[in-house]
Amino acid sequence: MDHRRPGPLVTVPSTALFTDQYELTMLRAALRAGTAHRRSVFEVFTRRLPEGRRYGVVAGTGRVLDAVTNFRFEPEMLDFLDRNEVVDGPTLDWLADYRFRGTVRGYPEGEVYFPGSPILQVEGTFAECVVLETVVLSILNHDSAVAAAASRMAVAAADRPLMEMGARRTHELSAVAAARAAYVGGFSTTSNLAAGYRYGIPTVGTSAHAFTLLHDTERHAFTAQVDSLGRGTTLLVDTYDVAEAVRTAVEVAGPELGAVRIDSGDLLMVAHQVRRQLDELGAQETRIVVTSDLDEYAIASLAAAPVDAYGVGTQLVTGSGHPTCSMVYKLVARAEGEGPDAPMRPVAKKSLGGKLSVAGVKWAARPTDPEGYAEAEVIGTGEVPAELADRRLGVELVRNGEPVGRESLDAARERHVRARAGLPLSATQLSRGEPVLPTRYLTPTA
Amino acid sequence: MDHRRPGPLVTVPSTALFTDQYELTMLRAALRAGTAHRRSVFEVFTRRLPEGRRYGVVAGTGRVLDAVTNFRFEPEMLDFLDRNEVVDGPTLDWLADYRFRGTVRGYPEGEVYFPGSPILQVEGTFAECVVLETVVLSILNHDSAVAAAASRMAVAAADRPLMEMGARRTHELSAVAAARAAYVGGFSTTSNLAAGYRYGIPTVGTSAHAFTLLHDTERHAFTAQVDSLGRGTTLLVDTYDVAEAVRTAVEVAGPELGAVRIDSGDLLMVAHQVRRQLDELGAQETRIVVTSDLDEYAIASLAAAPVDAYGVGTQLVTGSGHPTCSMVYKLVARAEGEGPDAPMRPVAKKSLGGKLSVAGVKWAARPTDPEGYAEAEVIGTGEVPAELADRRLGVELVRNGEPVGRESLDAARERHVRARAGLPLSATQLSRGEPVLPTRYLTPTA
To answer: Where is the Nicotinate/nicotinamide phosphoribosyltransferase domain (chains A, B) (predicted)?
Structure first.
């Protein structure tokens, strides 16, 4: 990816209004009550994985760092909040100077997670942390859902490359984040030019049915494409009759034809027919690319077929049945008073029949069995037991408001491969099941 | 909404890279082949509704107009395309001057649609139309999916207001579009400040569990909130014990307390208990707001419960099981030659076993039965039969590159109410079923 300099595609001058109104009304009330500056820790975690999934994949961490850095209230935003009486004068004054000066720790991008894993921990005053809730969750819930689907597809595809092609099936900016998350989860390329521009992800794409239909004949279209894009291009062969198109394609491009793409029909059967035909025509090196509503199961079902690459759209960007994660952002500890040295107290919602949380700032560790496979997600409060000290999972991401956890997307992508390889082998079964690691809580003995 | 002046939250200097690479490589090859300037018509339609759904809802049309207007290639984007050899020199030159100068017709925002409905028709040269595919589909597929879910929820909620609260469950900019689409589909308000800022949608929100946990006691928290936000505020009563919280809430705010919010537990049972308790405490006017993973079925199940408003998040922004629509953007007609007067030819993909399309530029009309209910979605090519002339569905949206179809969100929202009311009554059944109108194709007799 080094040859592609990422550029700032979309100028988001501020992320400060990607915020649910209640965050600012809470701030307003807490400022007035004098409690807004109590030291606080919020944690991002999930109570469960999507049904049947074996592991989750953390993605979006790098985008969270950008969002926290860009969380500033511009004058026209303050004017909007004032005009609509969302906040009062003192709150406007406070927001005008807002800049996150706290600390963020968390699972690094690409790491796997389980129910209860403290994926992100945001520490600072209540005021400076509470306003980040929505944007942090938006990013992590969306990106992690896509990365989890990508990871399952990458397992199903084994060594065959996966191309992300889902932009048209999701919001135009979700699409850019989805391409990024898919790359973290194991995809190789994207059709999305904005994702190439912004994040340096390699882009691919050649032609659609419209190109064939524009021309007087299929041969005319193929000739036009090969003249312009070269013999290494990918010709789409299912606009009219596949066998005829393959014959024409090889006649036009010769056996150096890069690939043919099949976008409809019984992919398994058609791939075998096309491979046989290509081989008979002497185009043994011409690859076969398939696209058409693929998901991890369809990819797996093509494992024995002569397919060289998969293009995946809808099911990737919609998380293959789970378009969001259920991550929440909860206050788990706060100071008992206003001063910086006031003792911290663990807190949690306790209403019966509701959604329970575990109070206190957590650590997490992932011990391994003698063969080196992870055996549990151990989560605790208080001191980390000595035997788990070198199995801890969190890293520092923001220190005193300054991002310290930036890294390349390739680093996150490689981390994910390692993290998944460290799980018990059943992690990569596509069938529905329980989380592949149990979550074990260790709390200090009283 | 008039008191809220929408502002430009997110500066998207250009939408031109929300584009799949193949659009630009097709352009490159067509420019070289001399076919790029053939007059062409692309249509957006779906082959089916999501399984079990009775109707679709068009949303995002206004955003499409913005996207088409802002589709310009900035110098740094051209540099990116050049550096990565996506296009060649002549294509770069052509893109540098790009500006859509064609015509767009389509279903106006808020209208309902059915399989085959020509939701959008983009006419111009092949070159100027082909590059809009991805961004147009991204917007319509996302926004229409959310609007369809919103419409079903609005039916289930009947006269009770719906609040959109899903920002944290989707990409931060999807969230803004989702709040917009939800408003079109029948929601009243949003928690999303960016949606209020950008689109003038009324925003709501008061407090979360974190606010209660920040304070030394629940009474302390409620007092702080009422002191700052007034007695008309909504107090969240399920952090500890609901009955105790309701008692404290009324003690603190008096019977003028605006509302209480319940966010967990058995909402049906708890709503009845809370209503009884509020009435006994003399707070007959205090409303009950429920939130907690609601979808249209949960909303319907609370129809007989003493609930005054619903807050909906996850299931709304993820389209209640259908997070995207299956809209496609297909070339349906193109000129036989390069000149502006070359005759147009209907075209369609024809590969067997694949995804069939109907060739030709379509019109659509929705005739009604004697009682005034729609009886079919009639789609045809060629002349519109006289008896259908006043039942046509399309409107002009862009003329010679200039948007002419801009309207307020309220206009789209009101149109949706009318369009849904014009469907047979079974349209509003939540249970799975077939599209409530059959699609009938009328093609000219040969």
So the answer is: 162-331
Cα separation, B69 vs B74, in Å, equals 14
**Residue A341 CB contacts under 8 Å (≥ 6 apart), including other chains:** none
Residues of B in contact with A173 (CB under 8 A): 18, 171, 173-174
**Do A86 and B331 lie within an 8 Å CB cutoff?**
no
> Nearest Cβ partner of A130 from B32, B210, B266?
B210
A94 vs A115: CA distance, rounded Å: 36
- The shortest CB-CB distance from B33 to any of A25, A173, A224 is to A224
DSSP character for B165? -
- Buried b vs exposed e over B139-172: b needs ≥16 C-beta within 10 Å? bbbbbbbbbbbbbbbbbbbeebbbbbbbbbbbbb
Tens digit of pLDDT for each residue in B98-123?
999 999 999 999 999 999 999 999 99
Q: Which domains can be identified in chain A, with CATH numbers?
A: 21-145+322-442 (3.20.140.10), 206-307 (3.20.20.70)
Residues of A in contact with B323 (CB under 8 A): 170, 318, 323
The model carries a pTM of 0.96
Mean pLDDT of A209-219: 97
Place of tokens 């709501």: B204
d(CA A167, CA B120): 18
| Of residues B436, B438, B432, B413, the one with CA closest to residue B423 | B436
What are B203's strand-pairing partners?
B190
3-state secondary structure of B210: helix
- In sequence order, what DSSP letters do the residues of A101-156 get, joined into one string? -SEEEEPPTT-EE-TT---EEEEEEHHHHHTTHHHHHHHHHHHHHHHHHHHHHHHH
Query: How many Cβ contacts (< 8 angstroms) between chains A and B?
Result: 372
The mean pLDDT of A27-35, rounded to a whole number, is 98
pLDDT digits (tens, 9 = 90+) for B51-100: 999 999 999 999 999 999 999 999 999 999 999 999 999 999 999 999 99
Both tokens of B95, joined, read 């893109």
Q: In the predicted model, what is the mean pLDDT of residues B191-199?
A: 97
Label residue B351 by pLDDT band (50, 70, 90).
low
- pLDDT tens digits, B397-415: 999 999 999 999 999 999 9
The residue length of chain B stands at 446
Nearest-angstrom CA–CA distance, B346 and A443: 70
CB contact under 8 A, A229 and B29: yes
pLDDT in tens, A263-280: 999 999 999 999 999 999
Are residues A119 and A140 in contact, defined by beta-carbon separation less than 8 angstroms? yes
CB B119 within 8 A of CB B110: no
Write the residue in A18, A22, A353 that is nearest to B175 by C-beta: A18
The pLDDT, as a whole number, for residue A355 is 59
pLDDT of amino acid A4: 39
**Nearest chain A alpha carbon to B134:** A168
What pairs with residue B290 in β-bridges? Answer: B262, B310
Dihedral, CA of residue A266, residue A271, residue A276 and residue A281, to nearest 10: 110
User: Which residue does chain A place closest to B14, by CA atoms?
Assistant: A10
Nearest Cα residue in chain A from B263 = A354
Per-residue pLDDT reduced to its tens digit, A293-318: 999 999 999 999 999 999 999 999 99
Greatest CA separation found in chain A? 81
CA dihedral B151, B154, B155, B159 (to 10 degrees): -150
Count CB neighbours of B426 within 10 A.
11
Q: Is the ipTM of this complex over 0.85?
A: yes
Closest to B362 in 3D by CA, of B342, B348, B343: B348
- Which chain A residue's Cα is nearest to B28? A228
Indicate the length of chain A as a whole number: 446
